[in-house]
Design a protein that fits this description.
Layout lengths: L12 H19 L9 E9 L2 E9 L2 H22 L7 H8 L1 E3 L3 H16 L9 H9 L9 H9 L6 E3 L3 E4 L12 H15 L5 E5 L2 E5 L8 E5 L11 E5 L2 E7 L26 E8 L2 H14 L1 H9 L5 E6 L4 E3 L6
Antiparallel strand pairs: 1-2, 2-6, 3-5, 4-5, 6-7, 7-10, 8-9, 10-11, 11-12, 12-13
């Protein structure tokens, strides 16, 4: 509903107040979705964040309020990055990694660590934020050696294990030397979730928030249509029709061997099985839909590690979660409810 310019000359106070009341009610009705397809303004913004690009789209009753909401949301998300990024020396996570302990951890770090532990237990250790020593070892050898020295590999593996992370509301500490945490597989999702929550708190329920392929869509697009999300082909050099899904009020995340490859054949990449120390051999990509982006993000990584059969069994047992898997042979499979 567009609010046209009002000529108030000669209008008495009561008449003016009636117009203001109607305009306010219109905005409230729009936020509740009572105007159906009449989404009148869309605002979009792209912003570097978390080593990738953040893309936001909001629909609202006027452009100024949409733009203001985007600005406030980006500030919120950047503040979270400063706490959870392992690449920022002053972040809480970097302090923990460099010292082995952190007193008085912030609420956001505590929440992410709780979510991470829950996911580690659900996946029997296929997802584990303490796998940083293994990741750093493989990053160091990128392109030079497929197989690390056995001694160094054993040392890195001994420093991995979510059960060796001690935490409570007052402190977080490592119980083994050489440990480190990477939130790359869940932190981005958590920050996207918080961005969506920030927009909702500002009264915007029809939104798209995406960072590096991990996203949440809420409400509807213009003309009251659902959001259509395309799933990237893990081997784009092969000409295939893009797989798409129509969703609303749901998170989507994809992990793939092509995103950060360590070797040209994509055999070694940033997704590492924390239980053996190497990249899993079976899947090329995994897309998960879930209630939250943090959960979808973490599950997409875990399913890559688990492989087809165990991945399907796990997701079929989880309410509100679905998955689409593509093997290295480019054969695809999905859970029963992935396409609706």
């Amino acid at each position: 509903m567009a609010i046209e310019h009002l000529h108030t000359q000669g209008m008495n106070r009561r008449g003016f107040m009636k117009i203001v009341a109607v305009a306010g009610a219109a905005t409230a009705c729009w936020q509740l979705g009572l105007f159906g397809s009449k989404a009148v303004h869309a605002a979009r913004r792209s912003q570097p964040i978390m080593g990738t690009v953040l893309n936001l789209t909001v629909y609202g009753p006027d452009r100024d309020s949409c733009e203001e909401a985007l600005t406030k949301t980006i500030v919120t998300m950047q503040g979270l990055e400063k706490k959870l990024s392992r690449h920022m020396a002053s972040s809480e996570l970097s302090i923990l990694n460099s010292t082995g302990f952190l007193d008085n951890p912030g609420e956001d770090l505590r929440r992410v660590l709780v979510l991470s532990e829950e996911l580690s237990r659900k996946t029997s250790g296929a997802f584990d934020v303490t796998m940083l020593p293994l990741l750093l070892l493989h990053e160091e050898l990128r392109g030079n050696n497929d197989h690390p020295d056995t001694g160094r590999l054993a040392s890195a593996r001994s420093a991995v294990g979510y059960e060796h992370l001690a935490r409570n509301d007052e402190a977080v500490r490592f119980t083994r030397p050489g440990m480190g945490i990477s939130l790359d597989g869940i932190g981005k999702g958590y920050i996207v979730d918080r961005g969506v929550a920030a927009l909702r708190n500002l009264g915007f329920n029809n939104v798209y928030v995406e960072a590096g392929g991990d996203l949440m869509v809420s409400g509807r697009k213009d003309k009251n249509t659902p959001w259509r999300i395309g799933i990237r082909n893990p081997r784009p050099q092969q000409d295939k029709k893009m797989v798409t899904i129509d969703i609303s009020d749901k998170a989507v995340a994809t992990s793939g061997d092509y995103l950060q490859a360590f070797t040209p054949d994509l055999k070694h990449h940033h997704i590492i099985d924390p239980r053996i120390g190497f990249s899993p051999p079976e899947l090329a990509s995994c897309t998960v839909t879930a209630p939250t982006v943090a959960e979808a993000d973490g599950l997409a990584t875990a399913l890559m590690v688990l492989g087809k059969n165990d991945a399907l069994d796990l997701i079929e047992s989880m309410d509100g979660c679905e998955a689409y898997l593509v093997g290295k042979d480019l054969r695809a499979c999905n859970t029963t409810g992935f396409f609706g």
